């Protein structure tokens, strides 16, 4: 009698499996392709971002600076994304696990929280660079460590609340029509709100970087006129072009990773998607994971202080000898960690633009 009860499947479980089977649309070759992408990008994303978190946490100077607190928040969000997305995605599409509404929405909430925090941290990083160049003289006063931590607390609190709203009750009331064609148990109203929220964050990031480039171009032109030397003016403009290339690459990867997914979500709100479109969405979803793998290379390891911290960590691991000789010449540059702005690669173009801002203000005051 007890064995019979143990083998009996409840009608509720059967209903959940029937609902989820409509979303398991991948063919066997597609499962292998997506599984390969996740198994490559997932561990790589995890290791990269854990490395960034470790470097920031073990450096006293870096973890005191707001810029690196935002980069640390980005790395933490991407660590969660590499774990939650990879496990949930493979568990659902490859192993076809039939979870109940509570278990499924909890997993989906973790994925939503990770990616939302990742985009939110990118916005805070963009705003940090905006303040660095537009308010260079008062940057340290405006953005203190306490304010940076408070902004991160607000970001993570809002993100966690929004991400787990379906688990708290905002789900589709019926089995079929009000539900999303892409996510089981998710109402189209919630999907509309979350997609709009992410689009607003991305738009603010674009605006922040556009204002940074405008300010950099204006000061490069003004310093060209003030210096009067053609050679120096051309060097300033080259700095301006390097900034444009760097930010252009950042925005291209960001928009290219998120726009396909958000486009499918917007279409899902207005119409019912077929199986071919659902399969395409599954592949587009992996772009968000790839974006999390690229973020450390774009935002963290391009910073000189983090690269030097990495070299020092390798030096401690290697001990003395060749590692000591190869990094000894680079150690004095660590004193730049007290500068106002985060050091960028490509000859520190952003920090150089900030210096131009200060020089321009002095010249204007003298002329006034």
Task: Give an overview in words.
Helix 3 packs parallel to helix 11, helix 5 (101-134) packs parallel to helix 9 and helix 9 crosses helix 14. The radius of gyration is 24 Å and the shape is globular. The chain is built from 14 helices and no strands. With 368 residues, it is mostly helical.
List the topology elements.
Elements: H1 2-7, H2 11-21, H3 28-58, H4 66-94, H5 101-134, H6 139-142, H7 145-163, H8 165-168, H9 188-227, H10 230-270, H11 275-300, H12 304-318, H13 322-328, H14 345-367
Radius of gyration: 24 Å
What is the count of β-strands? 0
- Summarize the helix and strand pattern as letters: HHHHHHHHHHHHHH
The structural class is: mainly alpha
Question: What's this, in brief?
Answer:
The protein is mainly alpha-helical and 368 residues long.
Features:
368 residues, globular, disordered C terminus, mainly alpha
